[in-house]
Amino acid sequence: MPKPSLENPFLDQVDRDSDKERFFAKVLKNNREPAIKKRSEDWVDADTELNADPKILEEEKIFSEIIALESQALRAFFGKEIPVPSIPQEITVERLKKWREQGFELHYLPEADLGRVNHQLNESETTLEFKDTPGWKKKLVYWGKNSTPPLPSNFLKLRAGWVLIETRQYSEAINAYENDVFGPAIKRLRMRGVVLNFSEETRKWFSYKDLKKPAVQLAFAEILGVDVEQIRLPEQMEVNVLGNIHAYWKNPGLLEWRDLTGSYDQNYSIAGSIGGFALMRTDTSDEGLGFRLMVRF
């Protein structure tokens, strides 16, 4: 039995030959296109890499290393993998270098719920119940009382985001923060009467309300080269977690002003130790405290 023909019976020999040629040309073209496309893409990638700005390539390398280190540090603290997103585009190597010279380091904080706030109606103190986290060695000790406004229920929660945290040490020997980049601005603010003129460049004797004044926030934002909306006091949990992970602060002796998670009252603030590890209390009157700043992206 003869094999069935795939040729069109209604075409003459010349037309059938032309039909075959078009068919095989189409098959060959379809088989070659992916390879040609792949080689073309390879050429484009190679050309892009050869012509890429070395500055951009170096920046990508530096940022990749930062992300890898953040991932490693967070895994050690939380005991599990924590996704670390890309570094915001507004951050450049030049800005990062400047911030480091000014005493700030870039880190990523993930969204996390680290415990629960227990308000005991029949006891004098609110208690904090912490979750078991492998790298959390130095936890908070709260000295607040129920007579003060209670801590918010989300007090032990972290909000996700890249942040700049001030790592500057406080020196008891000189009764001031070491190499304080904000010193000259503080002196000008005191001379203008924006804040009380106790001791010129020192950060001590700033009230919580002083730190919320637009003129004060603008002065600090201009030094760091960021928007006023980005600069603020860190929350106590942010300082505590970063202090546990990176061990920046050796001297926990000075109390500093802290913000509360989310919304806060201008007449109600948190005072925490410089390391964020102990002696944390609510405070509305004591103005002999220090402060450190944070930038959130």
**pLDDT averaged over residues:** 76
Number of helices: 7
Q: Give the helix proportion (percent range).
A: 25-40%
Order of helices and strands: HHHEEEEEEEEHHHEHEEEE
Distance between the termini: 79 Å
| Proportion of strand residues | 15-25%
Uncertain stretches of 5 or more adjacent residues = 32-44, 262-269
Q: Give the biggest beta sheet.
A: 4 strands, antiparallel
According to DSSP, the number of beta strands is 13
Task: Label the structural class.
Answer: alpha+beta
Q: How would you describe the shape?
A: globular
Computed CA radius of gyration, to the nearest angstrom? 31 Å
The side-by-side strand order for the widest beta sheet comes to: 1-6-13-9
Characterise the protein shown here.
- It is a single chain.
- 23% of the residues are buried.
- 36% of the residues lie in helices and 15% in strands.
- By secondary structure, the chain is of the alpha+beta class.
- Mean pLDDT is 76; it is low at 32-44 and 262-269.
- The strands form five sheets. Strands 1-6-13-9 form a four-stranded antiparallel β-sheet.
Summarize this entry quickly.
The chain contains seven helices and 13 strands.
